Amino acid sequence: MGHPLGHHGRLRGVVNRTPLAAWATCEAGWQLYPVYAVDDEGTCACPKGQACPHPGKHPTTPRGFNDASSDPERIAELFTRWPGGNVGLKTGRASGTIIIDVDPRHGGMETLGRLQAEHGYLPPTRMHATGGGGFHYALRYPEGMVEVPSRAIGPGVEVKANGAGVVMPPSNHASGGRYALLLRAPLAPLPPCVAEIPRRELRVLAGGAEPPTESRFKLPERIYETASPSAASRDVLGNRLGRRLGSLVRWSCMDGSRQARAPRGGCSSFGHLPTPRMCVALIRAMLLSTLEPNGERTP
Fold it and tell me: 155: cis peptide before it, omega within 30°?
């Protein structure tokens, strides 16, 4: 689980609330680095401004995620020397974490649903809502496996492992949304099927060319009948997400004075006030957790 400020050291000299909130809720051993934020108009804070092709998503440091660290003094130095309003997490062996990045805007929900129908459900684990309306599933890096490459494994679904990084809550997004901690839970082991898909599909191209970003992993046109995943595992995830949504709804129904006195209905770990976008992300995650392999919803 994440560590509280002061337990593993404070980020001394850092005044920006975003890295402080990210540090307060991150997992022990996670390597963080500063990332450029965006303003209210979605313009990146980097020198390119409106011409930036990746607003709010690229590092401020010279070596990018390779400058990341889990040491609080080093993190504080990074955010002081190369200030960034957003926070990045270096994925892979360095942080002991693999992120499954699901983007509904590019078919990620359908891809993940078909993958889970074919290979079984992702186990209950830590989940983030991305600023663009998607999800990050945080899973434990498999012991004994040297290389888990980062790549797309289907439309709208990417594995972020070695040689990659992701933006962390509560960073902001060019769309106007924010990254948020949806479910704070121990990191579950990476399912073997996810580890095998990128490893067996990755091909080294001749002449040192870069691997293509388009996935070579083709989902089957027909999902064959497989054993039903554990209903208990599915219910755990659905119930936890349901409780989170209930907390958000209860908090949003309070009047201003009660909201000021209440601990945000259990929403403080989001790092900021609940938003409609966050509620939509929770509902999407809940619906996905209740799908049976045939695509129907459980009663």
Answer: no
Please spell the DSSP secondary structure of 151-162, one letter per residue.
Answer: EEEETTEEEE-B
Span between the terminal Cα atoms of the chain, in Å? 32
Tokens of 226: 């497989």
Q: Fill in the amino acid letter for 24.
A: A
pLDDT in the model for residue 149: 86
Q: At 65, which amino acid appears?
A: F
Q: Which helix (H) or strand (E) holds 232?
A: helix 231-252
- Digit-coded pLDDT (tens) for 154-204: 899 999 999 999 999 999 999 999 999 998 899 999 988 887 775 554 333
Q: What is the pLDDT of residues 74-130, one digit of tens each?
A: 999 999 999 999 999 999 999 999 999 999 999 999 988 888 888 888 889 999 999
User: 134 by DSSP, 3-state: which?
Assistant: coil
CB 198 within 8 A of CB 149: yes
Q: Is the dihedral of CA 45, 40, 108, 285 positive or negative?
A: positive
Alpha carbon 186 to its chain centroid, in Å, reads 14
Could you give the CA distance from residue 155 to residue 215 in angstroms, rounded to a whole number? 8
What are the extents of the domains in the chain?
A: 17-203, 231-289
| DSSP category for residue 56 | T
- Could you give the CA distance from residue 162 to residue 135 in angstroms, rounded to a whole number? 19
Closest CA to 172 of 57, 6, 11, 26: 57
Q: Which tokens in the block code for residue 146?
A: 């040297």
Q: Which helix (H) or strand (E) is 118 found in, with range?
A: helix 108-119
Strands 188-189 and 165-167: unpaired
Determine how β-strand 86-90 pairs with β-strand 151-154. unpaired
Q: 104-122: b or e for each residue (b if 16 or more CB lie within 10 Å)? A: bebbbbbbbbbbbbebbbb
The reported pTM is 0.70
Q: Which of 163, 179, 135, 167 lies closest to 54 in space, CA to CA?
A: 167
